[in-house]
Amino acid sequence: MRNICVVGSGHVGLVTGACLAELGNKVICMDDDFRKIEGLKKGIMPFYEPGLEEMVYRNVNNGRLSFTTGIKESVKQAEIVFICVGTPQRQSGEADLASVEAVSQRIAKTMDNSKIIVEKSTVPVKTGSWIKRTIKLNNTHNVDFDVVSNPEFMREGTAIHDFMNPDRIVIGVESERTANIMTELYKPLNAPIIMTNIETAELIKHASNSFLALKISYINAIANICEKVGADVIKVAEGMGFDKRIGREFLNAGVGYGGFCLAKDVSAFIKIAEDVGYDFELLRVVQKINDFQRRQIVKKLREALWNLSGKSIGILGLSFKPNTDDVREAPSIDIIKQLQAEGANIKVYDPRAMNKTKEFLQNVAYCQNPYQVAEGSDALVIITEWDEFKNLDLSKVKQLLRQPVIIDGRNIFHPTEMKALGFTYQGIGR
Ligand code: UDX
Prior knowledge:
It contains 18 helices and 14 strands. It is of the alpha/beta class. The protein is elongated and about 70 Å long. Helix 5 (98-110) runs parallel beside helix 6 (127-138) and helix 11 (260-275) packs antiparallel against helix 12. Bound molecules: uridine-5'-diphosphate-xylopyranose (UDX). Residues 152-156, 209, 212, 216, 250-252, 254, 257-259, 261-262, 320-321 line the site of uridine-5'-diphosphate-xylopyranose.
């Protein structure tokens, strides 16, 4: 059992805190956002993540997990401090590390016994050494400390499962003592541990996330060729995926990747490379293909409906992927804005994310269910592959639509079956 403090109770911080408590540690999650912390104390989660609420509840009740806005008390008690604050993207693409620096200063000024400070936020390479420098500079009580890079690979929607069942754990560390403590902390997870220096650990995170984005853009590029030659991208992905060197995962063609991490990490990695004098052209093309996928949806609608001005378009799915209410960098927002720019009227439905889009979208009609979206619409566009959409009563949908047009941005239906049902149907790459 270790005493742990997690600074920053966002997605990564809260899941990390709850899971480390679940593993038997005593964890205090800290955040400056008073409302968030007050909510958490009452059992209200600041975002939706399957299984999180129950896990938080369980560990608060057994006394292993607590919440605070006070950095002093939480850092003082802790042996290990995880930095999980946000690293938003600047205009230039690079990560904004102001919060990481500020938190490092606050930790340094507070700590009065030896600490292990772990960076878990996704940060550019060399951040670890900046944290170290900052802490040294502000180390009021002159205590021993170690900085560790321990990037997190959890995905939203499956974050708890991913934390508890990682493919690997990456630990960038400088001292053997700290390496042993970190190994012991993660021992219950029974996963391979990559023990390395801080810079390598930091780079593993960027290299991995960018590779995932690259895989998605690659299959999307293939999808575009499939459409021209009459091939089926799902079969192509299957055929490629059986090759163990390639693997089937992250080869789902669609409207492109969204979410806070992949887009931000690709931009940041391009900037990191640029700063050290390398033009990461490959990743710039990855971004370009991703933008292209979003525009393709509008093009497909134009092909099916001719002019979009005055047409009513129904959108199913707003979150950047299923099982989350997160709409940051979601393809839906971009696509809806493009359609509105062409004069289309937009109706939307999402099982979880409608509240979160209200600040990004204007003049959109929010519906109670998919059928209300279909009613009187000239076309339906599927942007997120929620299970609810896979089980739609399609004959009812067809009756409700003004024109039986479906653009399936996630390939949840089969073209032949949809045509047999009388739809004008377009998937991606089929
Ligand atoms: C990602 C990384 O997977 C995770 O390791 C890291 O810690 C955070 O960033 P996340 O953003 O939660 O996780 O979601 P992910 O499941 O990776 O999906 C990202 C986007 O790619 C989604 O918009 C998804 O729809 C899209 N995607 C994914 C595809 O378009 N095709 C695929 O085959 C896979």
